[in-house]
Amino acid sequence: MTLTELRFCYLLAYDSLRRRYQPMEKTDPERMECMEVWGGNQAVQRTFITPGLKIYIDSQPYGQAPGGGDVYYLSSCASGRITRMLLADVSGHGELVSQTAVGLRDLMRRNVNYVKQTRFVRAMNRQFADLGEQGGFATALVSTFFATTMTYSLCNAGHPVPLVFRRGTSQWSELKNEASCSRPISDTPLGVVDEASYGQLDVRLEAGDMVLSFSDAVTESEDGDGRQLGEAGVLRLVRELGTQDSEEIVPALVERIRGLRDSNLRQDDATFLLGQATGGGPSMKNNLLAPLRFLRRIADHTRIA
């Protein structure tokens, strides 16, 4: 390869990485419709609004691939009062990930109107038991926001622990249930143990509170000395950001992590999902139309590579 060709390849690679990690310009949030499922495993930077919640999602597959092992979905029920969010990290790539993403999407569709999500997570574990037979497994965070009571319910199947921001104290902390640690086989990655149990942590959110979820590419990023950040390191960085704007937090965190080490967030799929409570609930119109929406098909706005 000539020197000119090497320079050309370098410029292409630099431009690709620059576009991938440049801060996203603010755009008007999109309103999710009732009886809708959205998501997939492709690169995306979007903001959505559902009753009582604003959701920001940023997902970048490894190496500019068309699709990655990080799978994300959002759904809204017939009245709009139930918003479900799924962030899964499936080991491997290619056809295995695509099949798993399709299975997750189908489960999201079948459970779109169920408030309790432990049923959904147990079904995921049963469905993905065959991943182990193919040498793979998945971790996942399943979150459900019930606008009527401003309740955020979380099931964690072996995924990095999310962070919660309380507007009243202006403090970030880890969102986890210490009591669940006493159970011998609980909250394990999907498909590892057939009879694993999955607890549910319920927290009440106030307007302005936020919950930040992310894939393990974030916790496995390294500091300047080559040590992995881990969950404690990510929490420390988020606390140091100095911003409470939900649309600025993820871009600022990405920039901060990338500044620690050039290889950070480049060696694996990287996904962030931020939900902010906004207050309010479904409109009277949506409540009245909910019984009729049960009769129609769920809108599928997913993209799977």
From TrEMBL:
InterPro entries: Bact_Sigma-Reg, PPM-type-like_dom_sf, PPM-type_phosphatase-like_dom
SMART domains: PP2C_SIG
Keyword Hydrolase appears in the UniProt entry: yes
UniProt keyword annotations, A-Z: Hydrolase
Domain PPM-type phosphatase: 50-277
Gene3D superfamilies reported in the protein's UniProt record: PPM-type phosphatase domain
UniProt keyword Plastid, yes or no: no
Domain of life: Bacteria
GO MF terms, alphabetically ordered: phosphatase activity
PANTHER family per the UniProt record, alphabetical: STAGE II SPORULATION PROTEIN E, STAGE II SPORULATION PROTEIN E-RELATED
Protein name: Stage II sporulation protein E (SpoIIE)
